[in-house]
Amino acid sequence: MKDIKIESTLTIYEDYNELPKNVALLMDQAIEIRLKAYAPYSKFLVGAAILLDNGEVITGNNQENASYPSGLCAERTAIYYAGANYPEAKIVMMALTAGSQKQPTTSPIPPCGACRQSISEYEVKQDLPIEIYFMGVSGKVVKSNSLANLLPLGFDRSFL
Ligand code: THU
């Protein structure tokens, strides 16, 4: 028997203004689409912007439903559109922002477990790490160099 230690390294930016220009531009698109989220039930708006290696930017936001589980997170709305329309393109970077309409959201909001699993599928498929930046509405921004950092012991195609 032995213990193993799993470590992830994340980069923390003090705020949006500290982001490299290209990342800030992608985050701008995530912010823009967050404001168009359809979230009448949770009042929690999420925006995702995805940069592809062909230069295209895909955006998505959360789409809720009166039948709650039928709704979909912003990350998956965006990434499935990217996968459907640009099946050959690789995902370079994702910018995520989330905010409640009920209270200020000043801490970085990470993607949920289901979204991590979905993003992981594309990272494995393209065999290239996806950089992920996530923030609230204001405050610190977290950068992960790859999805794998956010999902240790991930389940992937190699097990099938
Ligand atoms: N949500 C996302 O869009 N992405 C996440 O990673 C976490 C949660 C949405 C789903 C739901 O519409 C609302 O946020 C509250 O959970």
Automatic annotation (TrEMBL):
It is an enzyme of class 3 (hydrolase). The keyword Metal-binding applies. The keyword RNA-binding does not apply. InterPro entries: APOBEC/CMP_deaminase_Zn-bd, CMP_dCMP_dom, Cyt/Deoxycyt_deaminase, Cyt_deam_tetra, Cytidine_deaminase-like. Pfam families: dCMP_cyt_deam_1 (PF00383). Residues 21-158 form the CMP/dCMP-type deaminase domain. Its cofactor is Zn(2+). CDD domains: cytidine_deaminase (cd01283). One of its GO terms (molecular function) is cytidine deaminase activity. It catalyses: 2'-deoxycytidine + H2O + H(+) = 2'-deoxyuridine + NH4(+); cytidine + H2O + H(+) = uridine + NH4(+). Its EC number is 3.5.4.5. Keywords: Hydrolase, Metal-binding, Zinc. Belongs to the cytidine and deoxycytidylate deaminase family. This enzyme scavenges exogenous and endogenous cytidine and 2'-deoxycytidine for UMP synthesis. This is Cytidine deaminase. It comes from Psychroserpens luteus. The lineage of its organism: Bacteria, Pseudomonadati, Bacteroidota, Flavobacteriia, Flavobacteriales.
